[in-house]
Amino acid sequence: MDRLRLIGHRLSFSKHTPPNPTSHSNLSSSLKVQTNEYNPEELAESSESESETEENLKKEEDEKDYCEGGYHPTYFGERYGTEKQYVIVRKLGWGHFSTVWLAYDSIHHRHVAIKIVRSSKNYREAALDEIKILEKVNNGPENHPGRRHVVQMLDHFVHTGPNGEHICMIFEVLGENMLSLLLRYKQFQKQKTEEYKKTSVSDDDNLSAISVEHHMSTINDLTILKESYGGLPLTLVKQIAKQLLLALDYLHRECGIIHTDIKPENVLVEINDVEKLVQMLERERKDRKLSRHRNSRSQQSSDPVVGDRSRSASHRPKPIRLSKPLTSPVETRGSVDNFFRSFSFSQKRASSHESFMHAKSESAPAVSSIPPVPPVLAPNPAAFTISPQAIPEEEESSEENDEEFVDATEPPIPFPDPVTSATRRVSSLTIDPHQPVSRRESVLSTVSRQSSTATTTMDFDSIISVKIADLGNACWTNLHYTNDIQTRQYRAPEVILGGKWGCSTDLWSAGCLIFELITGDYLFDPKTGTTYNKNDDHLAQIIELLQIWPSKLYLKKCKYSREFFDKSFQSLKNISKLKIWTLLAVLVEKYHIEEPLAYDISKFLLAMLEFEPKRRMDAGSLSNSPWLSDCQLEEHLDREYGLRGQDIKGWCCEQSD
């Protein structure tokens, strides 16, 4: 398998001989002074308590792949690095290209993610290419606001094991990806919508001091729900979109790098305090272990031989097979509620109607300080994450459970205006004149406190921070490793047609991603039909949405155009009838977005969704879009809005030296 074929396949496992136990350092003694949160023997024991049944291991790598040229066998407490400073804590996940682990850096006293690459020559070469790209990212200008929104590699080295030499990369630990965040919000939306349906506004007459807090949280929930149209709340989407664009501008203009695989899974939430989170999770683990121990003692057999044998077995070195993404430190429901409630929405936004009527007007981005980011986490092992499982295990995929969520294509429930609702709810609180004075004062104090909290929250005081991750498929603007790039739903037309591509190809994917964050749906999801394939359908969907036929001159330059278009380049070969449904119409008719707002959104997205790559607006320029002017981010890039990559090398084709 050569470098080109490796691009799209990054992860799997192999058979090995266990290393000599004496060659592994004792984690508990080495970390006793630095932190008392970790004990490798306890971790190994807790791991063994997880049943490595055949059913569970079906989701893991194939054991046969532990062989020469394959994966490296990894153990709890094993040390890695040039100074043996990285101590394995647990397995986060696996894939075709590498395995990913949570480790403790005993020199810098922090947790990191370690990616251990397969040892065959082809994988090592691909990893070396990735390291060069990551080093360029690390060495770019620190004053560019997009730099902090690209994942940072902290270290890299070669580790020799029984299966060969493995390149290892150390990364900062990140949180959940955008796909996971979308799924969590859909659950939150479904739950709150059902609660609202069951609650009659007329019941407010019975409001008491005890229930004021509940009503205020309901007000905030209504504010959130009114800001979403099937996907994430728009305020959150704007913050994510701006940071994504800043990161892409940094990669394109400052680093000369094209990501080539922008999608929700590769944009991750930054964790504000990894160490605090891990400590919380470790305390929870110890509490669960203590509870299990108490239960087992009451049911334990009196046979001492079995007990002794069991204990000694737990201390034998055992290669780790089962992935254990870290679970959330709080209950699933509470975690979801608290996270989304922390993102309430500014009432100071400019009217969408004004924006619609004055489409050409521009405004500078608002500025505010950035408070700590709530630790929202979920599994994404390939992108080096600590991952609390916000989604219950029995709900395995969004596709299987979409029908359980709120259907954005149905007419929205007429939620009351949150501010009006707040006033009415508080004013309806009846105070009995015969109550003791102290009781009346308590009620009034509660109302005042909660009312004040609601007002503060609506001024918007939380900002999410995200990072682009997984540069394993990235390339240089002057060196494209392969033309087989991008995940299907985010694939640009030039890639399908075999045309020239460059940095602007990332912008197409970004437009598709942001649409998905807004609506919860793919923008393009092509299928195979009886007379056409996915590429045919994909091109048809693009033309139907853009309502613009690509120019004959452009199509003639694309290698595969004649496979999809007739000789005149005015119609598709395999799909004769197209149904035009513009992006603006889709937003209004399918997602019930008010037309002025839908106009603003479509204008923003269409700047990235130009059929011809050279016509797309560049990321840095688009970060100053009027639609993003109220997203409350401190970061700002001094770049004129409306530029189309004229000054970016490799913008729409491979740069020639």
Automatic annotation (TrEMBL):
A Pfam family that the UniProt record links to this protein: Pkinase
EC number(s) reported in the record: 2.7.11.1
Reactions accelerated catalytically: L-threonyl-[protein] + ATP = O-phospho-L-threonyl-[protein] + ADP + H(+); L-seryl-[protein] + ATP = O-phospho-L-seryl-[protein] + ADP + H(+)
UniProt keyword 4Fe-4S present: no
GO biological process, one term: regulation of mRNA processing
Stretches that traverse the bilayer: none
Residue ranges occupied by any Protein kinase domain in the UniProt entry: 86-628
Keywords associated with the record: ATP-binding, Kinase, Nucleotide-binding, Serine/threonine-protein kinase, Transferase
Binding annotation for ATP: K115
Keyword Transcription regulation: no
GO molecular function: ATP binding; protein serine/threonine kinase activity
Biased composition (Polar residues): 14-38
Matching Gene3D superfamilies: Phosphorylase Kinase, domain 1 (3.30.200.20), Transferase(Phosphotransferase) domain 1 (1.10.510.10)
Compositional bias annotation for Basic residues: 312-321
Residue ranges, annotated region (Disordered): 10-64, 285-331, 391-420
Record's protein name: non-specific serine/threonine protein kinase
Origin organism lineage: Eukaryota, Fungi, Dikarya, Ascomycota, Saccharomycotina
